[in-house]
Amino acid sequence: MRTYPLHPVLCFLLACCLTACTGPEPVTLSGENIICFGDSLTFGTGARRDKSYPAQLAEMIGQPVINSGIPGDTTATALQRLERDVLSKSPRIVLITLGGNDLKNGVDKTVAFKNLKAIVTAIQARGALVVMGGIKLLFWDRGYEEEYEKLAEETGLLLVPDILGGLMGNDKLMHDTIHPNAAGYKIMTQRFYDVIKPYL
Question: Which of 33, 93, 96, 98 gives 20 to 30 Å between its CA and that of 152?
């Protein structure tokens, strides 16, 4: 019986299908700790400390999570404390919310994302997984949304594009115009958890 070779395009499509079915690429992570690094969204402003997203994440996964959030933190001040609050703590997975204060303070996006890239690459150099919660503000974005996506492409970090999507403007989920309440932080927690679940 005569056989015919598969067309190259068909072979390519078959390979892509098989790759898609296998799930996330296996990742070997160094370090021991899950660290949440960032500004007031990480600290938990607007809710009790035990209802911040790092606290709710710890409860969800059943293991400790370090909250290294400081209200008012910018990408510049975060970069200055990176060694003390992240790199020295044996990071395994690092979740980041940064950029909102830069945007509010009128920091040029080129400066802000240069700082963010330095933060991300320094963490990745330690063998840790980086997950970024992007900030999207309608009518006030100034190109930050696209920069988060570009940073993800350049560094390979995992991006939650709009970490506050559907929360802002909802009185049932927000403590004020910027910060979620406990229920809002629960939604943030779930969004981060959905991304890191395959790597826990």
Answer: 33
